[in-house]
What does this fold into?
Amino acid sequence: MNKYRSYYVPFFFIILSIVGIIAANVSMDFILGQLYSRFVRNTIFLLALIIPILSGMGINFAITIGAIAAQIAMVVAIDMGLPGGRALLLATIMSIGLAIVFGNIVGFLLNKAKGKEMIASIVIGFLGTNLYQLIFMVGYGTVITPFNEDTLLTRGIGVKSMLDCMHFKTLFAGVMPIKIGNTEGSLVPIIIVLILASMVYLTSRSRVGYHMKAVGEDLEIAEKLGIDVDKTRRISIVISTVLAALAHLMFVQDLGVINVYSGHLNLDVFSAAALLAGGATFKKATIKNAFVGIILFHTLFIVSPLAGQNLFKNPALGEYFRSFIAYGTIIFALMMNLKYEKVRRTLVKADVET
Amino acid sequence: MKKINIGLPQIIIIGYLLILTISLSFIDIPLIQMINASLIKWAMNGILVLSLVPMINIGVGRNFGLPIGICAGLIGMCIAIELRLESWSGFLVAILMGTVVALVFGGIYSLILNKLKGNEEIVGTFAGFSFIPIMNIFWTLAPFTNRQMLYPVGGQGLRPKISLNQYFGGVLDNAWQVNIGELVIPVGLLLFFAILCLIVHLFFKTKLGTIMMAIAENEAFVRLSGVNINRYRTYAIIFSTALAAIGICVYAQSYGFVELYNGPFMMAFPAVSAILIGGATRKKATIFHALIGAYLYQTTFLLSVPVANALLIPEMSEVIRMIVTNSIILYAFLYEGRLKKNEQV
It folds into this structure.
């Protein structure tokens, strides 16, 4: 019975997706095409969530901070007006640098809020968003002078809410073309995703990875074993933030436009829900969960507005339904997690008594 | 007994308030108007802040699931508008229906929270967030017929912002206003607020309330003396939810609009921040904390609007408001982490 528990959530999503596909009445080609771009855009976010789970910090909702790092880098790169390839390179380097700095700060803060990492990371995400808005909405044009006046709003204060970066999108277009469904894409983003996935896998198998697992299992025992708990936790958050920054670069690269003020919002919740849909829990997550989750969750995401349109003549209903599923999955995971914790605690107690 | 503990949140907010007051004197805005507006803002948001008190005092933690209670109140108001009730009858029916719905919602919410003891804050956050899409489906499909609350085109689904002008907008604000020179005191509104505060205060003086406080202090001990803890937690959660429903009715009549759909999404954070500013801790909050917190929080942001406008950056007041809100909540989490560590040693 217990053996199949981890398959409950994915199975539920498979059923929902099948019902959704039937209700939406769309061609498989369309779904596959959409899945390709969603796979490219979102998988790395899921990878970013895995490592903090290993070190027992639960879901790191502060991956928003990583996305912010990437967004800052891209806005600056576009502002400087470099040509496509060099701009992307600069943005990548800069976003990794910023992500390392931000990741250390987030890790430091989360180490102070042990046992409450998840809610604290949500608040950190919100706070980061606000500070970011302060810089780009108020700071630009007043304190910071941009390289290019065109990036500002007409009143001269604040960056435009949308910046075009089509030259990022066309960068990969010619290289290794493949056709999935009805979308023509490139193999390069998929290869990048796979490389990062194997890097996450290798990290979890390395010395640091074992330290993280030990910390995730039990803080005090890990400390007694001579592992620097705080440092290990901070490293896992830094890795997570850097991955999130890369993920956001990939996201924007595929989208072709930067939503300066809203591009990074809600990514955390949807990525978390997708990972949990793939069968992960707050204590255990693997690469497999990420790949299964992205396909199941996003199939549902693609078809639910269409299903709403077909069944009720109202696409908004499908949209509400899918946001409910996203938040609901997280609550369900919390419930399951607590049950597991209770079982584990009684087991430990039994061990001590015998 | 009532001592204000001055911590970092209080210093931040009072410092910010001082900066604003000084910069306000450079702008040509009469202070007396600001005081009038601050009184209304205080009571308008104060009840939402007050609604956090029962849940904190029983040890469930700060209610980040505030949107659930708010949605109950919104349903109450929609029913009152649907019946085309005006003025006082509309407002009272809205509160009554809102409370009734809140009893149901609070009951369901308490089932979830009682199952997930110890993680109430994160569960509450996501319970609140996930409740909003459910309500969105309800707003779209609910069979309301009053044209003024439906989308102008199509005739199906409630509109995101319903004006209360014809119904009960400003009914409390304008009740028994007392003018002293230029100072306008909305006695009706403040009286209503005061009555609710008194109810909460007296509630915690009863036997029921005392047991609740005891649960927050030492749950294991109370359980050993044969008290069904989950039942008391359910009462407190329902009480909080009902207060939130009343709170949003008062908020909406001041604001003049009923905001549906994603309106309540982020309403929990300002309320939680306000009660933290008042000096509430994780397991103890008094009426005094709610009152002073709501007043300081709301007045600060009331003053920041004209200052930001004078600087020609109107978005600034909202952004800084959110920064202060979130950093105070974050500080509370970090600070509590430290306290816990000290206890262990």
